[in-house]
Amino acid sequence: SRIGVVLVAAGRGERLGAGKPKAFVELGGRTLVEHCLRTVTSLPSGGHLVIVVPEHLAGETLRLVAAAEPTGANWEVSVTPGGRERHESVKFGVDALPEYADVVLVHDAARPLTPAALFARVTAEVRRTTDAVIPALPVVDTLKRVGADSIVHETVDRAPLVAVQTPQGFPRELLAAAHDRLGTGAHDAADHPTDDAEVVQRAGGTVRTVPGESLAHKLTTPGDLALLEALLAAQNG
Ligand code: CTP
Ligand code: MG
Which of 6, 14, 69, 190 has the most neighbouring CB atoms within 10 Å? Predict the structure, then answer.
C-alpha cells in the first residue's frame, strides 16, 4: 500500500556555510532535494512525498518538482514550509500527509545518495513489526570520552554503539502521537531531539534497527561534499 515520505529540507546549513540552505546546494549538477525526489518517486509502493523547505524557497521547490522527469505515476508531491527546529519541520510534514499514508518515512534531504533499497528495507520492517525502524551502522573509530579541558577521561566500549541514519520509518499514528506529545513550543536547546526515533522513544515507543548504508552519508561540513562527489562519481562509473 501507499506510504508517506516527509523529506526535511528546511535547515539553514550553517555548518556547510554554502551561503544558502544545504538542501539547495548542488551535487553532480542536481540539488540535494532533486536527488531525494528522484529516489523517493522511483519507489514502487507509490504514495505522497511532502518536501519541507524554508518558506522563501517554496516557489523554487515547486519549480524543481515540476521540472523533474515524470516518474512513478503513483506518486503525489507537495511542498510545505518548515519550522525553526528539525522536529517542528517533521511535525508540519506529517500533518500535511493524506490519510491513506499508514506508514511514514522521515528522510533528511542532507542524505542525497541514500539508495531506494534502504527506503524499501525500512518500510518492510515497519510493516512486519509495527514498531519504529531506523538504519544503523556499527561505529568503526575508537571512541573516547573527553573533558572540556580536552583531556581524555576514558575509552568508551563501542560494541553496543551504532551510528544512525535516515530514512526512519514509523506507523503513522505512532509518529503523529509522539510529535503531538512533544509539541512545537520552546524547548531547552540541549533538549531538542535530533531524530524522530528519539521523539518516539520519549513517548514510550519501541525503536528497532536495520542495517544502514554508507551511501546514506549525511552532508554536514564542506569535507562531506567532497566525499559525496566521489561516491557519486564512483556510482556513475
Ligand atoms: N532540517 C529541517 N528543519 C530545521 C532543521 C533541519 O528541515 N529547522 C533538516 C535539514 O534541512 C536537513 C536535516 O533536517 O536535511 C538534518 O539537519 P542538519 O544536518 O542539522 O541540517 P541543517 O540544520 O540545515 O544544518 P546546520 O545544523 O549545519 O545548520
Ligand atoms: Mg541542524
Answer: 6
89 by Cβ neighbours in 10 Å (0-12 / 13-18 / 19+) ranks as buried
Residue-wise pLDDT tens digits, 90-123: 999 999 999 999 999 999 999 999 999 999 999 9
Q: Cβ(112) to ligand 1 under 6 A? A: no
Cα 223 to Cα 165: distance, rounded to the nearest angstrom: 18
Would you tell me how many other CB atoms lie within 10 Å of the CB of residue 207?
18
Handedness of CA 153, 157, 161, 162 (dihedral sign): positive
- Residue 144 in any domain: the answer is no
Question: What is the identity of the amino acid at 41?
Answer: T
In a domain, 201, yes or no: yes
Query: Of the ligands numbered here, which is closest to the C-alpha atom of 108?
Result: 1
Prediction ipTM score: 0.99
Mutation pick for ligand 1 pocket among 7, 12, 166, 168 (CB with most ligand atoms within 8 Å): 12
Picking from 131, 143, 7, the residue whose alpha carbon sits closest to that of residue 68 is 7
The tally of domains found in the chain comes to 1
Q: Is the pLDDT of residue 195 over 80?
A: yes
Strands (E), the chain: 3-8, 26-27, 30-31, 47-53, 75-81, 103-108, 132-138, 143-146, 152-156, 162-164, 168-171, 207-211
Q: What is the pLDDT of residues 24-63, one digit of tens each?
A: 999 999 999 999 999 999 999 999 999 999 999 999 999 9
Beta bridge partners of 162: 138
Centre of ligand 2 to C-alpha 110, Å, is 10
3-state secondary structure (DSSP) of residue 82: coil
